[in-house]
Amino acid sequence: MAKRYRPVVAESYVTSGFGARWGTQHRGTDFGLSGGSANMPVYAAQGGTVVYAGAASGFGGPDPAGWVVIDHPTADGSGTTVYGHIIREVALGERVEAGQRIGRVNPNKATNGNVAPHLHFEVHKSTWLPGAQIDPVPWLGDAASPDTSQMSAKPETMQDGVLFGVDISNHQNGIPLKRVASEGFKFVIIKATEGTWKDPILHSHLADARTTDMQVAAYVYVRSTASAKAHADTLASHLSDTSVPIALDIEDGAGADPNFWRAVRDEIEARGYRVILTYLPKWYWDQVGQPSLAGLPPLWTSRYPDMIRGYASEIYTRAGSKGWEGYGGLDVRIWQFTSTANVAGYGIDANAFRRSEAELVKLFTGKSNTKTFLEVLMSDTVKSFINPGKTFPAPTALSLIDASNWRSEVLTEALLQALGFDTEKILAAAIEADNSGADRSLAIGQALNLKEKK
Ligand SMILES: [Zn+2]
Questions:
Q1: How far does residue 16's CA lie from ligand 1's centre (Å)?
Q2: Who wins on pLDDT, 329 or 449?
Q3: Phi, psi at 324, each rounded to 5°
Q4: 92 C-alpha to center of ligand 1: Å?
Q5: How far is the CA of 100 from the centre of ligand 1 (A)?
Q6: Which single residue of 104, 162, 394, 431 has CA 20 to 30 Å from 331?
Q7: b or e along 267-295 (b: 16 or more beta carbons within 10 Å of the residue's beta carbon)?
Q8: What are 322-358's pLDDT values in tens digits?
Q9: Distance from residue 121's CA to the centre of ligand 1 (Å)
Q10: What's the 28 CA to ligand 1 centre distance in angstroms?
Q11: 96 C-alpha to ligand 1 centroid (Å)
Q12: CA-to-CA dists, residue 249 to 35, 39, 44, 219, 410, angstroms
C-alpha cells in the first residue's frame, strides 16, 4: 500500500475529534500545537492532485487563505483529504506527493474562517462529498510523521539570490536553532557582550548553532561607558574561541565617535578575532551626524518596512530595496529587515544576505572555497564526469582549463562561466557536500552535469 503520512508534525496533537460536538457533527479532526498553531506546516497525507485550493466557506479567504483538497488515485491509497484553515503553498491542479508540505496553518482570524489557528483535516472515502467523511484518526493509523527538514523548501529558502539569517540574544533563550536551520535560515549572529556585560546565553546558543550547518558569528554591543580595551578584555574572557567572527553593534549608547569604534575593533582584532561587520542602523548614523565610517568593516544595516509579524520571506518582499543603500562610505553586506519574523515559533529579527552561499561562507569564515574548487576540478573523478561524448561544451572547457595549466582560480572560474557553467552552483554543491559529509568530487561532478538537463 502507498505510504501514508500524518498531515502535521509529530509534536502536534488532536485538539478536537471526529463526531458529535456542540450538538452538531464535526466532520474532521482538528490538530494543533501546544503554545499555538500559527503557521504550523501542513503536509499531504497521500499523493494526489489538488482539486480545490484557496478560499472556501468556513475555512477562510481570500486565496491563498482557505483550504486544500487532494484527490488520491488508487495507486496513492485512494480517497480524498481536506486541509482547512490553512494558507496554501500548492496550486490547483498540482500533483503533490505523500508527506509533501502543502501549506501552513493560517494565523490570522480575519482570513482563516474566524477560528483559533488549527488544522481541520477530513478524509472522504472516495471523492469529496459533504456528509461522507470518515474518522481520520483510525484512517491515519500508524501513518508516518512528515519529514520536517523539507520545511526549508518553503518559505525561507533562497529567493532571487537572497539568503536569510537571524540574530539572537539572551532574550531568545531556548530558541531551537536546529528548527531555525530546518526552516531555511543560513546564518545566526549571537550576542556575546555589551560593554563589560557578558550575555549568559551565548554559550548555549553557540553550542546549539554548532549542531546546524548555519554560519555563526557573535556580536559585541559597543558602550561608550567602557573603554575599547575593556570591550576586548570582556569578549576574550567570555568567548575563548577566536575563530568565531565578530560583529560590532553600534547604536544607542555607543557614543558618536567613529575613532572610538575603530579602537574597539582594533582591540578585538589584537586578541585574534576577525571583526567582519558593523551593525550601525541608518537612523543612528543620521543621529550622530553622518560621520565617515571609513576603515570599519562593511555594514550590517537595519531598516524595517513595518512591524507586522510574518514569514521573513514575506516581509522581505515588501521591504523594497532601500536597505541595500550604503552610507558613511561603507557598503551594506547584511540587512536586518525586520524584528518581527516568524522563526521556529518565535518573533525575532531576520536578516538578508544578497549574495551566494559561497560568499556567505567566505564572509563568516574568511576562507575562500576557490582553492578547494580548483583542487576538486582537477581530480580524476570530476574529469570522468566531463565526458567528451556528452553534448554540452565540457571538452572545450576542459581543454581551455588544461591550457591554463590550472594555475589561475580566477581564470578557471571565468572560463567556466564563459562556457555557460553555473560556478556558484558548483561551489554551493561543494559546500553542501562538505557539510553533509558526502563525496565532494561526486557532488561537483553532478553540479557540472546539471547543465545537460536544461
Ligand atoms: Zn475542525
A1: 7
A2: 329
A3: -85, 0
A4: 22
A5: 21
A6: 431
A7: bbeeeebbbbbbbbbbebbeebeeeebee
A8: 999 999 999 999 999 999 888 887 889 999 998 877 7
A9: 7
A10: 5
A11: 23
A12: 32, 31, 44, 6, 34
The helix or strand, by DSSP H or E, that contains position 120, with its residue range, turns out to be strand 119-124
Centre of ligand 1 from the C-alpha of residue 3, in Å: 24
Please tell me the distance between residue 138's alpha carbon and the centre of ligand 1 in angstroms. 16
* CA of residue 67 to ligand 1 center, whole Å: 12
Read off the pLDDT of each residue in 262-284 and give the average, rounded to a whole number. 97
Question: Cα of 22 to ligand 1 centre, how many Å?
Answer: 12
**What separation in Å is there between the alpha carbon of 24 and the centre of ligand 1?**
12
CATH tag, 13-147: 2.70.70.10
The packing angle between helices 228-238 and 258-270, to 10°, is 40
Q: How far apart are the first and last CA of the chain?
A: 35
Per-residue pLDDT of 134-174, as tens digits, reads: 999 999 999 998 876 554 334 444 455 689 999 999 999 98
Instruction: Say what the pLDDT of residue 39 is.
Output: 84
CATH number given to 155-365: 3.20.20.80
- DSSP per position, 81-106: EEEEEEEE-S-TT-EE-TT-EEEEE-
Identify which has the larger pLDDT, 160 or 49: 49
- Map out the domains of the chain as residue ranges: 13-147, 155-365, 370-453
395 Cα–ligand 1 center, Å = 60
Same fold, 13-147 and 155-365: no
Position 450 scores a pLDDT of 42
Work out the average pLDDT over 62-87.
94
The rounded Å distance from CA 26 to ligand 1 centre is 6
For residue 19, list its beta bridge partners.
26
Ligand 1 centroid from CA 383, angstroms: 57
| SS3 (DSSP) at 16 | strand
Parallel, antiparallel or unpaired: strands 163-168 and 133-134: unpaired
For ligand 1, the distance from its centroid to the CA atom of residue 8, given in whole angstroms, is 14
Q: Measured in angstroms, how far is the CA atom of residue 27 from the centroid of ligand 1?
A: 7
Say how far apart CA 135 and CA 325 lie, in whole Å.
Answer: 56
